[in-house]
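Listing S7. Sequence submitted for prediction.
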Amino acid sequence: MPMNARILVVEDDQHFSGILRDYLEYEGFEVECASDGNEALQKVEGTAPHLVLADVLLPRLSGLELCAHVQAHPDVSVPVVLMSAVYKDADTVASLLRQCGAQDFLVKPFAMDDLKSRLLAALPDGLFSERPGATAHDGEGGALVLLDNRLVPLASEGSVEPGALASLLLAILAHSHTGVLSFRDGKRWKQIVFLNGYPVWADGGGNADRLGTMLLEEGTIDPEQFACAVQSMRDEGIDFGSALTRHGILSPTELYAQLRRLVERRAVSAFEWTVGNWSLSDEFPPQTTPFEVQPLVVVWKGLKDHGDVASLAALLEPHWNSFAIPTGRFAVNWATLKTQEGIGVLGGFLSGRRTPADLLQLGLLERDDLVLSLALLYLSGMVGFGAHPATASRMAGVASESSGPSTVDVPSLTGTLTDQGEQVIQDYLRLWHADFFTIFKIPPGASDERVGQCLSRDVLSWEPDELPESLPGDLRAKANALAAHIAEGRRVLGDPTTRSAYQRECAARSLETGNAPQAALAEAAMFFEMGKSFVQKKDFREAELAFGKAVERDPESAEYVAYRGWATYRRGAGSEHSVSKACALLERALVLDDHLPTTHYFMGMIHR
């Protein structure tokens, strides 16, 4: 009888280590784990395993160093298989194998059936016996209940229904769709722009969708810095973000990171919508500023903040005592979710051998959080449900048939970019949305000679052909797009005929969109945040004044008007005059937006 092979798993990510251990033990291997290279070397020198499966980047002693020590050890002969999410280039991998003497190399993320086949190939013959019952139908003919959003055609429009947005966003991701998802309910609106299934921009016109509001709420900037930026908007005609960098309140890199967070926040807030209509286009808006965010993270945060637990529990109820079996999409996409609070703790326990009821009994999460977590994994096709535990063939079959398009790591920027990297960000934020006349500073009615002089200027603070190799890929793409945009501007404005046509186009666009007083809107957001802070302090006189200033600057905001009404009522201590004045303001807020929950809450409190 062949004996079971002993595998030493060396991985400092405890969640992933747990996944590997659960899977390999279920497949019939004996498994021991170590969390760093030194611990692993001590285990090898003690009772040597039959194979070492090690990550490359480990604490204390790297996987490469561990492999070199094992291969040079005079008393042991143990094959080593390395794995890494960092080294993916074929030439680099081959060089690493030659350098340390490893038998094989797995690029994370990998499918579990690929892992097993690589380990069997590296093990000496006769060291592994197939686990009993590992057949195409797990020995009992059980079928896997699995959702595949790729098989569902994308609709182009529909009515907003509570809880439906998660499935819609996951379908957009599964189809790698590019276009704009628009929501409309009376005067309320929101748009999310997608590129290959990823949210890259979002807006909604509301106070919570403003950059300044987010930064104030989180304490990233203080009211004095906010006011300074707003004044620059008025004096210099620049946007809020540019004003922050102009005064050194945020560096370009910090602003870039905050704008990405703003896109995520705006996309997550779409989960608040429960009424209205939506439509989905298949056109990418020109001059969209892309700040890619993780769609799975958006859906998770949307469910956490606004998910209907009861309906999701009903979705899972038929499968509550079925085995939760990870699919190929789980192996590919789990890295994007494992760092998220709540759902991240499940990774090492989704082995295909536990039911939702088992997971609840383990006490990893409260029931509601477990329901939200499993619902996302099920809706995204990362987990299916079966009547029998997972088997080798089942894991392999699901992995090969259901992997689909993977999510990729969205690159993050640190504050350690080169000066040129900072300049690329600053130019991109300053110029990408500007019209060609503004970019080249061409005054109205300029002569052809003057236009030529303006077009000869260098408007970029860097040379497109001299970008450093260290520049992150998404920034390099933005730099190239901006350089092409500038070249297009020179072509359009350099010819009198195309220049005249472009000027007419700009004039028409200005009439269509109007000139929104952005400084006034930003200032309104500042006064609104001040008003809410006064409400917390129960200083309703100052709150009423602050909300009043917000309404003066943005009279179309139902939220501002409603809060002013509430502060008026509280300041008047419920007097007849204050009730009358407050109700008039709340009625006005309902005219502006009859679905704003805050208004209905305030009205109910007053009439109570």
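Caption to Listing S7: primary sequence and predicted structure tokens for the chain studied. Confidence is low (pLDDT under 50) at residues 130-141, 392-409, 512-516. Residues 541-607 form a domain with the Serine Threonine Protein Phosphatase 5, Tetratricopeptide repeat fold (CATH 1.25.40.10).
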